[in-house]
Structure formats: structure tokens, C-alpha cells
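quick q for whoever's on today - can somebody do inverse folding on this one?? i tried earlier but teh output was garbage lol. C-alpha cells:
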């Protein structure tokens, strides 16, 4: 099993460099085709068009989005031409109100989508919408790559956060091509009171699945010594010297995580290593 179609969605000139460099590195590793979507977003809400907004405003907003897409496309083509991979790139213009639908359409046939973090210095609501559109509507796994990029030996050592959920299993399966390259994979179960949803031996079946795929996996049962699961996982990533974490995304509703917090959002906000997510 290998990734053969990789996709990255570029919406910021500040992110284009490390996004395309990381995506091209993966394309070389897997002899994959890299699709690059350079998107300009018309930020005028659709309701204003129907409310009779000034036609000059409408035309100006669309033209700015088109110019942004064209500028990003030129930048992307310059960046990727020397990477030695098969690639295609195109500019796309989308109204903000239908951004999720546009992204879902381009993402649904990708094996893996490479995106920047949706929170922090480089993140914003548009990046968040793109990430969630890929996961929920495009039904594709995402590799969120921090601005520091991928290590030269990526992936060397992996941590797979395991809670027995369907989301975690989908993420683990989506990560198989990367885990096959890692020297060691740590299946990490954060211990909690009560019965684990994975049964009396949580993580054992996942380790068996990995073993049959030729993946060297060890099972780590980690005490929950901190109130937040995300803190426990991040500490374990640092302890193991991992350069990738694999997790199921949004086990709780996105609304609940946005308002009350949750492991997915906290990891997206604070992780310094790439995160592979699936829902």
C-alpha cells in the first residue's frame, strides 16, 4: 500500500513554501502524483449579493480572489518545478460561503491531503474550514504540517494515539504507508478509569494489525497524570522523540470542541510535529 495521489491546498503565500516542500518530499518517497490547488477566496458573504450589494464591490471582490489564485499559482509552479516529482497545479476561485463544497470536490479522490495548521500564527478561519471540509465532506485523511516542515528522515518514529474509536482506526489505516517507513511505531493508550472501549487489552489488536503489515509496533499504556489527554500525548511524543502523531479527529462534535475544547483542537493548536488525522 502506498499513497499515489497527494493533494495540497495553498491559500497563503506565507504557507506555500513549506507546504509544497513537504508535499513534494512525500511525493518522492511514494512515487506519487502531487496535485496543487491554489485558491483565491471571495470573502464577500453570499447573502450580500442577494441583498443587492453594489455591483462594483462584487466585481472587485471576485477580481481580487482571481488575482490571488493566479499569484499563488505562479508561486507554486516556481516552487515545485525543481522538486523532481510528477505534479499538476491549478488556480481556483471560491466564494467563502461554498468553500467547503469546493474543497470537498477536489479532496475526495486524494489519498492524503497536506495542509498547514488551522490555528496559531499561520492559521485562520479559512484554513480551519478547509481542514474540516477535507475530513468531513472530502472523507480524506489530512497531514497537518507545521511551519518547521518535515524532518529529513521523516517518518522516523511515530506515535499512534489509540482510544478504540472508529476515528482512531481510520487514522491508523490511513497512516499505514507512512508507518511502514518508520523505524518504530508506538501505539499509545492513555489509561483511564473504567472499561476501555477497546476491551480488556486495549491496543493489542491494533498492534497485531500493524505487525501483519510489517510495521514494528510497541504498545505503550500511559497513565493519565494530567487533566487533558492532549497534554499526555504531547509529552509522550516528546519522550519517544517521535516526528509524527496519528490521531482520530473530532471524536466529539466540532461545536463542542470549538466551545469547550477537546483533544483534536488542542493538538492542532499545540503540536510541533506533523499530525495525521482522519474522521
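ok took a stab at it. sequence:
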Amino acid at each position: 500500500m502506498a499513497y499515489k495521489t497527494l493533494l495540497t491546498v495553498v491559500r497563503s503565500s506565507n504557507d506555500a513554501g513549506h507546504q509544497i516542500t513537504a508535499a513534494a518530499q512525500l511525493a518522492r518517497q511514494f512515487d506519487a502524483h502531487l496535485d496543487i490547488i491554489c485558491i483565491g477566496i471571495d470573502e464577500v458573504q453570499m447573502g450580500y449579493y442577494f441583498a443587492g450589494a453594489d455591483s462594483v464591490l462584487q466585481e472587485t471582490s471576485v477580481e481580487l480572489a482571481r488575482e490571488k489564485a493566479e499569484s499563488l499559482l505562479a508561486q507554486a509552479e516556481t516552487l515545485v518545478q525543481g522538486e523532481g516529482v510528477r505534479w499538476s497545479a491549478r488556480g481556483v476561485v471560491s466564494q467563502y460561503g461554498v468553500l467547503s463544497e469546493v474543497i470537498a470536490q477536489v479532496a475526495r479522490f486524494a489519498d492524503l491531503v497536506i495542509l498547514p495548521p488551522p490555528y496559531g500564527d499561520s492559521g485562520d478561519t479559512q484554513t480551519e474550514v478547509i481542514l474540516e471540509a477535507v475530513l468531513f465532506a472530502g472523507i480524506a485523511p489530512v497531514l497537518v504540517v507545521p511551519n518547521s516542515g518535515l524532518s529529513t528522515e521523516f517518518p522516523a518514529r511515530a506515535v499512534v494515539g489509540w482510544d478504540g474509536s472508529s476515528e482512531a482506526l481510520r487514522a491508523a489505516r490511513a497512516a499505514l504507508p507512512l508507518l511502514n517507513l518508520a523505524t518504530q511505531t508506538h501505539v499509545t493508550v492513555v489509561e483511564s478509569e473504567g472499561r476501555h472501549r477497546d476491551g480488556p487489552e486495549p491496543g493489542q489488536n491494533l498492534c497485531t494489525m500493524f505487525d501483519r503489515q510489517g510495521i514494528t509496533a510497541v504498545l505503550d499504556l500511559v497513565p493519565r497524570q494530567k487533566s487533558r489527554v492532549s497534554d499526555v500525548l504531547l509529552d509522550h511524543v516528546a519522550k519517544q522523540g517521535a516526528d509524527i502523531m496519528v490521531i482520530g479527529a473530532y471524536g466529539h462534535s466540532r461545536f463542542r470542541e470549538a466551545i469547550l475544547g477537546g483533544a483534536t483542537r488542542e493538538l492542532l493548536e499545540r503540536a510541533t510535529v506533523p499530525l495525521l488525522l482522519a474522521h
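fwiw The chain has a mean pLDDT of 91. also The first strand starts at residue 5 and ends at 10. so keep that in mind when u check it
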